[in-house]
Design goal:
Layout lengths: L4 E4 L10 H9 L2 E4 L3 E5 L2 H6 L9 E4 L2 H13 L9 E4 L2 H6 L10 E4 L4 H9 L5 E7 L5 H8 L3 E12 L12 E4 L2 H10 L9 E5 L1 H9 L4 E5 L7 H12 L3
Parallel strand pairs: 1-2, 1-9, 4-5, 4-7, 5-6, 7-8, 9-10, 10-11
Antiparallel strand pairs: 3-8
Length: 248
């Protein structure tokens, strides 16, 4: 079956010349972006109940843009002036670049990993004497605390935001040829919104092993997978699949 419509279960990228725009134009498909999950900030009162005093930390580990936004939101709500001496350990260049929304980059001590959390660990390990704060969602991969404990640093997790299932009732009678998922939370959202969901002719695309596992646990057939050596990005995986199935 040909692919004409694709639903991406994430917000639309806020960049010009997104790879999805290129895919849409090249392959003559329609792509919609509808977030299946969204983030709600945890009130500062709840953060205090977690026994977190921001003045106790000399370094912060930032794994996402959400972590950046909600750390500075909590600091503002607590009337805490973030010191210039605070060290920032960013999981990727994208996170470090986003940090410029809140700090003057050249005046701060910012350390940047390559892309994944394990790749950031050697950098963190070099600063064992720091006291690290990890602002996170209520949903944290079990591997993250294990890796931080393993390198023997002083650290504390703070739940600063929550991952919440979005209301998708407006999609009840809408059909897409391909639905794309990037996290187990997205799969969870699909079945919380539509407990009786039947895949039928919908092709399922997933990014990452944990998402593949969640899809299979919910009885979904996974048609498109990324990353792979041949297709390291989701857009490449989609393009390959479309080219194969849209041949006349």
């Amino acid at each position: 079956m040909k692919v004409k419509t694709i639903l991406i279960s994430q917000p639309e990228p806020k960049v010009e010349n997104s790879p999805y725009s290129d895919l849409e134009q090249k392959q003559k498909v329609k792509i919609d972006f509808i977030p299946f999950i969204h983030v709600d900030g945890v009130p500062s009162k709840e953060v205090r109940q977690q026994k977190i005093d921001l003045s106790n930390f000399t370094a912060i580990i930032l794994t996402s843009r959400n972590a950046v936004d909600h750390f500075f939101r909590i600091a503002e709500e607590m009337r805490f002036k973030v010191p210039d001496s605070l060290k920032y350990f960013c999981q990727s260049e994208a996170v470090a670049y986003y940090l410029q929304k809140y700090v003057v980059y050249r005046k701060r001590k910012i350390y940047v990993g390559k892309r994944t959390f394990p790749e950031l660990m050697p950098l963190v390990k070099k600063y064992k004497n720091e006291k690290f704060l990890l602002p996170s969602s209520d949903m944290l991969k079990p591997a993250v605390p294990k890796q931080l404990d393993k390198i023997g640093i002083t650290w504390k997790r703070g739940v600063f935001y929550r991952t919440v299932v979005s209301d998708l009732s407006h999609l009840e009678k809408v059909f897409y040829d391909v639905v794309v998922f990037f996290s187990p939370s997205g799969i969870k959202s699909l079945f919380e919104n539509f407990p009786d969901f039947e895949q039928k002719n919908t092709r399922i695309a997933v990014f990452g092993n944990s998402t593949i596992k969640a899809a299979k646990e919910h009885g979904l057939t996974v048609d498109i997978k990324a990353p792979t050596p041949e297709t390291p990005s989701m857009t490449m995986a989609l393009e390959k699949y479309i080219k194969e199935h849209n041949k006349k």
